[in-house]
Design brief:
By secondary structure, this protein is an alpha+beta fold. The protein has 2 domains: 48 residues; 49 residues, SH3 type barrels (Roll), CATH 2.30.30. The protein contains 1 helix and 5 strands; from the N terminus they run H-E-E-E-E-E. A 5-stranded antiparallel sheet has the order 4-3-2-1-5, with no helix packed on it.
Length: 102
Amino acid sequence: MDFLAQASAKPSVFWTTMIPFMIMAVVIYVFILRPQKVKEAAREEMLDCIKKKDKVVTNGGLHGVVLSVKETELMLLIDSSKDIRVKVERDSIASILGKEEV
C-alpha cells in the first residue's frame, strides 16, 4: 500500500517543479523572442521597400540617395556636386528618410 501512495505523489511533485520553468519559458517567449521576430520582420520589409531616389542612412552614418538597387547591394549618391557614389550592402541600411530628386 505504501508503494501505491508514493507512486501517486511523484507526479504532483514533478508538475510542481515544472510549473515555474513553464512560466519562465512563456515569459521569455512573450517578452523577448516574439518582439524580436516582429522587429526583424519590420526591418526586412523596410529593406525590401527600398527603391530609386529614396534617401537613406547607413549603419555607418552615411546619408545618401539610392541610385540603383540590386539583389544584395545598393549604389548611393553621397554628394551630388562632386559625384561621389558608394556601393553598399542592402543589410547596411539603417533607415529610409524619404524621397529626394536626383
